[in-house]
Amino acid sequence: MQERHFRLGLIGHPVEHSISPVIHGTALGELGLSGTYAALDVHPGNLRAWIGAMSRAGYRGVNVTLPHKQAVLPLMDSLSPGARAIGAVNTITVQGEGLHGDNTDHVGFLNPLLAALPSEIRSAAPHTEIRSAALLGAGGSARSVVFALKQLPALKSLRIFARSPERAQAAIDTLLDGSLDVSFEAWDRRLEVVQETDLIVNSTPIGMWPNTSLSPLSGGSFRPGQMVYDLIYNPRPTRLLQEAAAAGAVCVDGLPMLVGQAAAAFEIWTGAAMPLEAVTRAAERALSL
Q: Is 69 annotated as catalytic?
């Protein structure tokens, strides 16, 4: 019986900065699976033609990054509930004659958060749960974060801080079902939430390389047992997480999310669990180069 070959990739524009080929290539190698994963620069003007040809080209699946996550939605034959609700696709799988769109970003975000809760937050502050959260920014990843946060059973309130609260509300409102008390607030009010909020999530690029001296909460006063989650994975840690950790907060950076969303896509395509330890080490090496 001929061994199955997995032809995989990432489509976006640009993509040369991506470490996804390292992540998936390491996973394929560690598991002894035959396959390739390539970063493919697909211009927006060529997107429809590329998607239409991917099955014939032998692809099992591809990840999707900026600026294509919303643009591929109408090109899918079917969508997962998560992709439909979030309004973005980051994983495409060839299924028979059709293409299935999924979104694994919310899984990648939520799993590291849940992993940190019992071992760190509850040991530092017994019986504490995440009841309040603040989200900094309302850009491309914000909808996935909100979709994930809605799955936290104890969460009661969410404050979203953005340069334009009106645009943020228009972008996120369709995800809201009344289960959370959600407010959309001006960006210059964000320092008000630092001490009083159980979870702070930064979804902005503030502090990303090369602007590593910046923080979206510069001058904020963090507290022990609080959780601060920065979706940035370069540098590690960001200035935001350095300051939060110094105050005793529990910190999570963006690399576990990056690996987590990749692991969910990898399992969809191959049916195999990604070897997370080996992949994380490879990703760390790639980021240090």
A: yes
